[in-house]
């Protein structure tokens, strides 16, 4: 496993396990399998209603808590609701702290929401805080009002939507670029792309592995999701090969600067059409 260093000095695995759309009843088993396979970073959210399953799998794994990196996301807006929501998430998951908590998407009162996150960070309930689905203007507003710079911005990114403009902005402020839907939610257009299939054959790996390796070689955190143990293992097993500079350039050229999900629309403001 490779790690990234966050701007507050802590480290995080560059690859983790995504849990969106894994039902609350399936989550404990899926996360237990992920931990057994060697995943040490898990991404959940209040919105997914599966924080309890993540926490239960963590507890039953017997792994030392400090070896794990657990992320959740606030779906509340404003100071009071978010303060309550943080404590509720900790109770749901049965954890003393989260390693990272994000504002899930921009809403009405992001400054109030971030104030609650910063307060919980200072109180030790969160080891780091960040945002998700924030464009440059929205990040700029947070940074103009708080001393604590977000450690990551988790944004839709895959080889067809590489977010190069926002990536550079994030690098300038030492904010790690984290992707959601690194595999384009399983879109056939990615998995059957001739260039990716060609590279998969060349490196004797799968197209999914080539996509994840490309993103991690660009220092982008990835959190692929699968409940198929073969795919889960394959997605983790990407650090024994590396794309050459020429092949990185081939994948870079696939960028269509186009959102596969179309959400949230405020993110299109950062594309360089
Ligand atoms: P993803 O890009 O990880 O793709 C998941 C799909 O790909 C599933 O259908 C899965 O079966 C398939 N797949 C996975 N590995 C495969 C493999 N090796 N071979 C073939 N098929 C494979 O999609 P995602 O779940 O939308 O995104 C990953 C994570 O990002 C989520 O689980 C969640 O934790 C996070 N997320 C965050 C936001 C946000 O707003 N912050 C939004 C969406 C997702």
UniProtKB/TrEMBL annotation:
Residues where substrate binds: 104
Pfam family, one: Aldo_ket_red
NADP-dependent oxidoreductase domain location: 16-255
Active site: 48 (proton donor)
One Gene Ontology term of the molecular function aspect: oxidoreductase activity, acting on the CH-OH group of donors, NAD or NADP as acceptor
Family label: Belongs to the aldo/keto reductase family.
Protein name from the UniProt record: Aldo/keto reductase
Native source species: Limosilactobacillus fermentum
